[in-house]
Fold:
Amino acid sequence: MSYDKKVIQIGTIAMLVAIVGNFLPVAYLAIFKGLCPSGAQIMQIWGVAAATYGISWVIQPISYYPALGAGGSYIGWISGSVGDMKMPSITMAQKISGYEAGTAEGKCMSTIAVVGSIFTSFSIVTIFTIIGNVVLPLLPALVTFAFTFTLPALFAAIYVQMLPKSAKGSIATFIIALVIYHIVKTTGANTGFATLGAVIGGMISCYFVYNMDHKNDAKA
Structure:
C-alpha cells in the first residue's frame, strides 16, 4: 500500500473518530440532561455558520492542500488554525529543509511541521491563556489594537517567501486579488467571494505564467 493510501485510510478513521467525539458532549446533554435544541434552531444555527464560513469550507482545503499534503490536511483540519499556525510552520520547514511543496519529501516535511506546530501552539496557548488574563489588561491600547494585524502579517510573510519561486505569477495573483477585492467592496457582495476569486484567479494566472515560461524555454 502506498504512503498516500495509508495516510487516507488512517486519516479517514481519525476524522470519523473526531467527528463522533465532537458530538459526545452534545449527546450527553441531550440524553442525560434533556437539553436539546429543536430542529428549526439547529438549522438556524447551521445557516448562520454556513453564511459566515461556508465559502472557506471550499476555498481553504483547495488553496492549502498543495502545501499541506494528505497527511497535513487530515491532521491540520482536525486540530484547526490551519491558516494562521499550520501554513507558516509548513513554509518555514520546507524552506529550511530545502524540499519543495508537492514532492514526496515536501509532504513528509509538511506533516512533521503540522504535528510540531500542534505541540508548540498547545503549549504556548496554554501558557498565554493563563498569563494573558493578567498581562493583557496592563498593555496600552495601541499594542492590543496591533494584535488584529497578526493574521495579515503572517500571510504577507508567506507571500514574500513564495514570491521568488514565481515572481510573475505572484505579482499577477496580487493584482487579481486587488481587482476582485475592489469589485466585491464596490458591489457590496459577501467578502468571502473576494477570497474565492483571488484563489481561483491566482491558480489560473500561475497556470498561464507557467505555460508561457515553458514555451519560452522550449523556443530558446
